Every structure is written in structure tokens, then in C-alpha cells.
Amino acid sequence: MKQLMRSLKSILLLFLILSFALLAGIVVQQNKSQRLLLQSSNENKAVLHSRYSNAGTIWSADMVRLAYSKDGERQYAENSELARAMIQTVGDYTHNIGNTIEGAYQDRLIGTGRSFTQQLAFDFTGNGMVGDDIILTLNSDLTLHAQNLLGDSNGSIVIINYKTGAILCMVSTPNIYPDNVIAWTDIPESSLFNRSIAGAYAPGSTYKVVTGIAWTESEQYDPNYTMYCKGQETLLGPGSVTEDRGEDAHGEINMQTAYHVSCNHFFGDVGIKAGAELMQNTAEQFGFNKPLSLGRLVGKTGTYKAVADDQYLLSWQSIGQPIENNELTVSPLHLAMISGAIANHGIMMQPYLVKNYISPFGKNYDITKQEVFSQLNSTAGVEVIKNNLITTVEQGRAYGSYIQGYVIGGKTGTAESVNDDGELATNSLYTGFIDDPYNPYAVGIVIENGIYDTPTIAGSILAKAIELNLSN
Amino acid sequence: MQSLTSYITYLARYPLAILAIILTVVLVWQSLRSLLNRFKQHTTPAHGFFLMSQTAVAGDFVESYSLFHTTAIGSSRSSDIRLNSKSIARRHALIYLHDGKWFVRPADSNVNLYVNDRKVNNPRRIKNQDLIRMGDRTMVFVDERDSAELSGYEFEGSIADWQYDKIVEQPLRTGFSWLLVSLFFLIGYIAVFLIIPSDFGRLRIIYLLLLGFFFVFAQIYYYVLPLTFENFDRAIYTAFIFIAALGLIIQARFAFVDRIKPLDWSNAEFIRYIRNDFIVQAGVAIIGLAILPIVILIVQRTRFLEKIYYASLILTPLLYLATLILGRGAAEWGASLWITLPGGISLQLTEFAKITYLIVLANFFKIRPPLKTQLLFAGWAGFNFILIMLLPDLGSMMILLPVTLIVFSVMTSEYLKTAGILVGGTLIFFVAYKLLSYVQNRLYGWLTLWTETNAYNEQIIFGLQAIGRGGIFGRGLGVGNPRSIPLASSDMVFSVICEEMGILVGLAIILCFIITWLRGASAAAKVRDGFTSSLILALATYFFVEAAVVIAGTTGLIPLTGATLPLIAKGGSSVIAKWLMIGMLIGLCCRNEEGAYK
Ligand SMILES: [Zn+2]
What we know:
heterodimer, A: 472 residues, alpha+beta, Beta-lactamase, 6-stranded mixed beta sheet, 5-stranded antiparallel beta sheet, 19 strands, globular, B: 598 residues, Tumour Suppressor Smad4, 2 domains, 5-stranded mixed beta sheet, 21 helices, 13 strands, 60% helix, binds zinc ion
């Protein structure tokens, strides 16, 4: 019998370990599910309809209803143009679009994802089954304006408050009305794709902002450095950077002029001088390759991997052109964050979309805290580049974004990317900011398939932001 | 926004979850302590008692052996006192303490055992200096107290040591847990009643009557059965009544709440359908409870289970074969384990095959069998497993294999061979994986659980979403969305419970099966009858493994197998089969230390 006891004892130990693993495993799975499975494809639409029939309201920052439940039906913004401009962000109750507020914040909207003490308080005051409202940082007028500016083109406009990180506007075109998404009919290609936070574009000359910072950090940096631009000739030899837009040579050129005319030779040259390691470091200080979450939504920063062993390829990377499958992409949101960091003395704020919740008692709570996303080592260099971007607007190629009475900085870019149809197409990009403590806005723009006047579009949307007086 | 009654049901989730977790934690704690206590009692040598032997070869060379609560003497390696001699059987005799007195009895009916040269067939009390002879060995039983007294000394040792077996026999105090189970049932009973739509009219009365009947029955049993059956294990009973009560509450919720009337049905048709559906669910629980004392009585007082061994040997593969041949035609989805009898009654014969399988298993390993017998069993079990894989019933396979392994390793103490079987079992799964596409699909669905939704994992994903929505205390009975989960009332019922009643209740379910196992292990350690011991172990392990495999499967911890949660999942024959097994388990635990009563 002692033998039996001994065997039983070992089995008991095994059994207790397994039991504990099972109990702990279920708790872990619940937690994981609460984080990762708030929405999935193929969910039962009828059930979702009834689950959202009494869910909370999603408000824009200026208190326009973007999604709300009435008489057992889920409704979206009354202004159908606004509803369409918000579709990839707000989403819809059928979870047909992934990564949206409706899906990722489902638990708060239906009143399950709150902390225990909060829930207890609501339960015993008769409000337990009421969901929270959510207030977003997005402004409805700015959104409508951006939608207008983009028109029929494919692209994205993002505006952030670079002092707080709040995303004030993000529109991605083409987009589509919520009714179509719910019924799953007449959905244009890529209209459910949120270019603003998930797009990956070659940055083109907008990347010269990053290269400029790397250069000011380099040991070889000399504020008075000039070099000779040879125009359509290559910088180092066949395969290295050239003025590929067919322009005349810029001749002897310094950094400020190089920004004004967006000289490829100059930035190719200083990029090589800064070296792959510093280029990589600087890019990562700008948030490249860093995972980005917007609360529960998944965002995307750019990706960058400096070519270490080939100066010819590095020279192309330095002007924002990935050649031969070299990695270099940026999202419109990230473009706005880059300019924002320049305007904000090298501090890149964590972008966010959800301002706060409104409890069933009608009180604002769980207010999103402002955080730093990334910080540049450079301090003096940031001010140098900032001034160069400001004069680029005042005297250079970004003149279109000039607004009387305001200090605007910016940089344009064009780059070839493979588009939805698999063809090589030219995209127009822009990154810029207003240097004004009362209007601390940064903008990122990408318009696909063509040369567009992005500076003028930027000027228009920034002017609208100033007009709306969003800081108050 | 919602009516007051449904809000009361919503708030009921707090007391329900708290009651469930407290009552199960208390019972687990008590059961674990009692089991560890029993281990201690049974593995500590009795102070002041031993056997002295004179080996035939060495003449007057004296060996002394410690005695335990129960000491097995024989030639096999699993004996506590191993005597290597051709004249000694593998399991020859047992010496044990009962009620403060020492007894000896033969372990098998055909061995020779003599006390003071008188043949012993039944337990015989032994005293100081008694001579015990088995085969060519003779031993002297020494009681140091007596010896000391005879020599005029005083024996040092407390009287408590001497009577230590009495301490073990104290039953667990389950009154508090039972009170909580009763409260749990009553609160759940009222909570569901409040959310049954008022237009169901008479159905609400039927609900009150049937569940009320179950509750009263369960209460009477709790107080009366221990009077009828000595050693009636109230802890196991409490745990199973909790499980059954939870099953009734959640199935009633399925039956009455959130039902959608098919468009072409009349109101009367709809209500009749719901009524029949519910009466079957509540009915099987009541039938199960009704047969419980009968099963306990038969198992405790007779050797019926021992007698149906040969029948079980043949019946097990036959039941699988019958399902394999007849079940196919009734297939609605994938493999069908149901057999439809004339009259429209569907039966799941495989549920009963599991019982007969366990009986055979227990019989084979009641004593450590020689290799030849082990191989014989391996052949028989292997044949059954092939049939199971052909069905295919991955769930049964995933449950019976671990149970076999645990019974084998405990009863034989052959860890090396256990490891070998484990490797063999893994190989079977590998072969099954290679041959059977449905195994591949399930594994694929499981591996891609967190990366994509596909046809093979959406069931688990929807279930996990529900568990996530439920949080700690759940969303309240009737508030969840079971319709978002396929097979919500059967295979995926655990997810629905977690959504509506909270993860605490989910954890309480697992704790209940832990209680069952701990109590079973304790009883298995107590009985000296090999068959009783191994069948208790087999049944208790079966319940735990089944629950664990189902719950781990529905929560994505392991691939989904398609088994269902005992007593909680919707089912007819499966629920009856489970009540039979509960009766067997409680009945076996009621047996005294010598096995069945006369
Ligand atoms: Zn140039």
C-alpha cells in the first residue's frame, strides 16, 4: 500500500500542476481575448446588431455624433459625407472593417470593459447595463474639409496637435458610406483601407527632414558647408543620386538653399557623410521601426533600414527613395509626427484618438494621458532644420502652404511607389507644421498617382484648423 | 432601459459568482488537506509495531519490517514487504490496522496463510507474538507495548499514535459548502425565472416545478443518504449537485430566453417545442438524481461491477462497432455518435462504452498484473482505440488515454512503461494526424487561433470573445450573446457560462472536478480492495480529464476535440451516463475498506 501511496503522491503532484495550469490558462486566455479578439471576421451579424442596439455614442471632439444607437438601431453620422470620411476610423457594428473604434472599443460601448469598482458603482445605481460614450480627438469640420480637399483622389490627410499628440483629423480616400459597409455592397477597391495610419509610402524628399537632422548630428557637420550640385549627372557615379526630375544643376549650394530647391545631390552627399549608422539612429529617434498603437487601434510608423555597405544606395535612401527593395516607408500619420517633432523642439508626442469616455452618470472619465512617443537627441540641429523648413515655405518649393500672419514650415516630396494595380506610380507627399503656441498643428499628406500641389492643400487645411480655433 | 426583474437577474451575477467560488475553494482546500493527511497516516510506520522474520536460508538471522496502516506482503515489486520466494504469491497477505486493532488476511483466495498454524481465510485479529506463516516464511508480530509490559517496563509513546487510524475517518464538514450550493441554486432558480418571457405562461410553472423538484430531491439526499450509506461522501455529492444545478440553470436559460420563433410556426407549436426541449433537459437531471441511490446501493452492497467484467470486455467494442455501423446514417454534421432508435429516440452509445471501458481497465489493474496480462489489455484497448478513431471520436480518445495512463501508473508504479505508453499515445496521434484530415484541420485551426479566423477555429474565437466579454462576474443571465457561438448549448457551453456568469463560475466548475479527484484519490488510498481502488481512481480521473479536455479545448489552450462538459452540456443519454458514473463513484467510495459489502 505504501507503493500505491507513493504513486498516488506523484500523480497528485502532476495533477495539481495541471489543474493550476488549466485555471491560470483560462484567465490568461480571457485576458488575451479581451485585448486581441474584440473583433474578428465572420462574426454573426444579427447578434452584433442586437449587441450594439443599445451601445454608447461615439462623439467627435466638437460633439458631433459619429455613431449612436436609437430605437434598437445603430446609426452613423447624420452628415453622410462626414460618415464616409470617418468610416475607416469609426468603423461599423458588423466589424466588416478591422481596427476601428466600433470594434476595438466594443466592450466600453456596450458597458463591459470597465474597471471592477466603476462597474460596481454603475450596477448598484441601476446604470450597469448602459455603455460608455467615447469622445474622439477628431474634429468634424476639419474632417469634412480634408474630405473635400482630397476629392476623388486616393490619398490621406492627417493633422495632429504636436504639443499633445491628439489626432485632429485623418481622412483616407477613397472611402464609402457606412450603409454600404453594413450591407456589404458597392465597395470601391481599397476604400476600407485606412491609409492614414496603415499606409506605407516611399517618403521621397520629405525624408530630407530626417537626413538633415542626421547631418547636423554628424561629426563632419559644418553649418557653412557647401557642395557642388551637378544636376542630371550622378553624384558618385552610375547608380548614385542624380537630379532625377530633369532639372538644371544647382551649382554651389548650402543646406538652406538645398531645402528650398530640394537638391538631391546635397542631401545624397550629406547622408553619405552622416553614415549609415547615424542615419539609422536618427530614423529610429524619429520613430521609424517602432510599433505604434493609438489606444487600442494599431497604427504604423515608417520602416527604415540603412544600407551600410553601399554608398550609392545610401545616397538614394538619404533623399527618401528606396532603391532595389531597400526598406524605407512612411505613413501619412508618421509624416505629421515627423514635422511635429521638428516644431516641438525634438519631442514627438504619442498620437491618440480617444480623448475620454463619458460614464453612464454623464461624467467625463478615463481621460487619455499625454505621453512622449520618441525624442530626438538633436537640440540645436532641430532648430536649424526648423528654420530651413520655415524658409522653404517662405521662399522655396513649399510656398503654397504659406498663410499670411503665421509661421509655417514644410517640405514636399514625390516618390514612386507600386500602387494598388501593381503599377509604378508617382505619389505626392507633404509634411509641415505651424510654429505657433496657440495653433500647434502638424500635417502629413499623401496623394497617390500623380503630381499634386500638396503645399496648397496643406495651406488650406492648416488655415481651416486656425479658423476653427481648435485649441480652445 | 430594462425592466426591474431583468435588472435583478443582472445583479444576481454577483452573489452567484461569489457563492460558486467560495464554496468550491473551501471544498478543494478541505479535500486536499484530508488527502495529504491520509498520505501521511498511510506512509508513516506504525509506532511500536513490526514484523520479525526468520529467513529459512539464514536460519536464525532476524529481519524486522515496519508496519503501516495497511501493509501488503508479496513477491511483486509493488509490495510493501517484498518476500522473494516461489512459495509466496505476487500479492499474498495484507496486515492492517482497523479500529485500533491489527488484522491479517490473505490478499487472494488461493494463497496459504496461517496464524499460529491455523489457516486463515477471513480477516483474523493478531496480537503480540502471534506467528504468521505464508509459504516457506514465518513471521512474528511484535507489539512493543505488550512486550514492554511483560518485561515490566513502560512503553514510551502516546495513545494518540496508537489510535491514529481513527483520525482519518472523520468525514469532511461540508455543511457550509452545501448551504452555499443551496443558495446558489435558489438564486439562479429565481434569476432565470425572472427573465422567462411572461407570454410563455404555463412554461414558467413547469420550470418552477421541475427545478423545484430537483432541488428538494437534492436536499433530501444530502441529509438522508449518509444515514443509509456509511461513508457517503458529501463532498463529491455537493460538487456534483453544484455542477448539475449550474447545468439546469444555464440550460433553462437556453430554453426560455432569447428564442426566435421560426416564421412558419404557430405560437402554440413554438411553445410546445420549447416545452419538450426543456422537459427533456430537466427530466434527465431528475431521472439521474432518482437512479442515484439505486446505483449507489448496488455498487456498495453487491459485487455487480466485478461480475459484469466479462460482459464489459465484449460490450465495449460492440458499442463502438454499433455506433460505427448504425451511427453513420444519422450523421448531420461530420461524424455522428448518435443512434436513432425506432420511435425517434436518439442514443449516444459511446457514452456507455466509456463506463464499460473503465470497468475493464479497473479489473485489469486491480493488482499489478504480469506482463502477459498487461499486453493482453494493451491489445484490447488498442482495438477499442482503433474503433474510436474510425468513428471518429477524438474527444473519447483524448479522455480515455490519459485515464488509462494514470490508472496504470498508479496501480503498477511502472513509470518507465508509463512513459512508453505516453510515447505510444503520441505516436497514435501523429498517425491520426497524418491519416485523418479532420485532425489536421483542428490542429491548423488551433495553431492559427491568434492570427486569423478560419472555419476550423472560429468556434473557439467566438467562444473566447464571449469569455472576454464576460469578465470576472459576467454580463448577467440572459444578457450574453450565445447565438454568436456555434453549438453554444452543448460543446461551447463553458464559454456561455463565462460570458453570462463570469470567469469565477467557470473556474468554480474546474474546482469541482478537482474536488472529485481529490476525494476519489483519498478513497482509492483507503480501500484495500484493488478493483474498488482502481475503479474509483479511474472514475474520478475520468471526470477531471473530461472536464479539463473540454474546457481547455473550448478556451483554445489545446486543440478542440468535440467532447462535452459533463452534466452541464445539453444532452440526454450523456447526462444519464454521467449520473450512472457519479452513482458508481459515490457507491465505490461508500464501500468499506474491504471492498463491497456482502
Ligand atoms: Zn541639386
